[in-house]
Design a protein that fits this description.
Blueprint: H1 3-8, H2 14-30, H3 35-68
Length: 87
């Protein structure tokens, strides 16, 4: 399998998912889709929304880890500055 084929099987990125939800919202807001299509779009949108929620939770955890442990391994002895301190 080459790179292009493996890319086809990757989950879409955050921005791509968000863009798709916006497209779905636009179609549903127009009111031109039939009932069956509207339900299918709603299901797709809900699946994407749940996926985005999981993505955001994972990113939030990463930020908490970095915030609570600001010194990466190997940075011992590096001097840090307190930018909130008034000179």
């Amino acid at each position: 399998m080459d790179e292009r084929q493996s890319d086809l099987h990757q989950e879409p990125g955050f921005e791509e998912k968000l863009r798709r939800i916006e497209e779905i919202n636009s179609v549903l807001a127009d009111g031109k889709a039939d009932l069956e299509q509207s339900v299918a779009l709603y299901e797709e949108g809900m699946t994407l929304a749940r996926s985005l929620e999981k993505d955001l939770s994972a990113l939030e955890r990463r930020i908490e880890i970095v915030t609570n442990n600001p010194e990466p391994e190997g940075s011992e002895g590096l001097e840090t500055a307190d930018f909130n301190e008034k000179a």
